[in-house]
Amino acid sequence: MLYYDESLSISLQSNSERHIDVLIKDSQEDPVWRASFVHGEPRPENRHKMWNTLRSIHAAVREPWVVIGDFNEAMWQHEHC
User: Edge-to-edge strand order for the sheet containing 9-15?
Assistant: First the structure.
């Protein structure tokens, strides 16, 4: 779910159970920018699906882009405890 202020212009580009991708325009004078909100796959064997989705989105990006969220990626083994 994505909540936003009504003063923003939001255009949904794609979404799934694990991501929401939108174009955002703050005001009429401002340029469009892109935001992708991610909740990564908790199962390690399926995490490649989210990375493939982000690669696919990246191929279409022509504006400034921010990716925000929980990728469920751990840098060290002790983070799994």
Answer: 9-15, 19-25, 33-39, 65-70
Rounded to whole angstroms, how far apart are CA atoms 43 and 5? 33
Question: What are the tens digits of pLDDT across the range 60-76?
Answer: 999 999 999 988 777 67
Radius of gyration of the chain (CA): 15
Instruction: Enter the DSSP assignment of 5.
Output: -
Question: Would the pTM of this model clear 0.85, i.e. be above it?
Answer: no
Instruction: From residue 71, give the alpha-carbon distance in Å to each of 8, 11, 30, 68, 81.
Output: 26, 23, 29, 9, 17
